[in-house]
């Protein structure tokens, strides 16, 4: 294949632009903010789970407290009724004894309920403190996610802007290679295999694979016409001879 030396140098410039695009894509995929965001989101999820657990436990305890209060109110009402009956006239000794016995039972029951209620209220207070702490941690975690997301978006926007500039430069170079379609096709074929498409021959080293080339091969390359397209014997890239 033959191609104007100027077109070959354009392909070399194209390879440099493609390398820059590759670096930008790699930077975007490996942004430190992406890892930070993943970690921050996990912390936020854990904090949210802690809030839900504490809220659930608090709600359970509130229901228990309400239940005991209803039971205490019931015991209190029954006690008040029995006391009124006992203080009233017209009851016999047997009924008075039964009422007195029931009052003693109610008093014991009320004591048990109030002790249980006190224990649950103390636990509810501790859970309340835990819930406040969990909510504070969740607020911090959400703020961290927002901060990292903002920094990630800014970094991605900067890289995208740089990538757009490199894409425009690439399109311009490809356009100038319109008269060297075969050379461009050869370059793209090499790139499609995941390799560097072109590299400069500087002294005895290929700019694409960075390897030292065989002296015999170098002699053959230097003996060829300037418009003859040659490829690196090591990596297959288009080898552009430069001054």
TrEMBL record:
Residues 14-194 form the CT398-like coiled coil hairpin domain. Residues 37-116 form a coiled coil. Keywords: Coiled coil. The keyword Transmembrane helix does not apply. Pfam families: CT398_CC, Zn_ribbon_9. It comes from the Bacteria. This is C4-type zinc ribbon domain-containing protein. It comes from Pseudonocardia nematodicida.
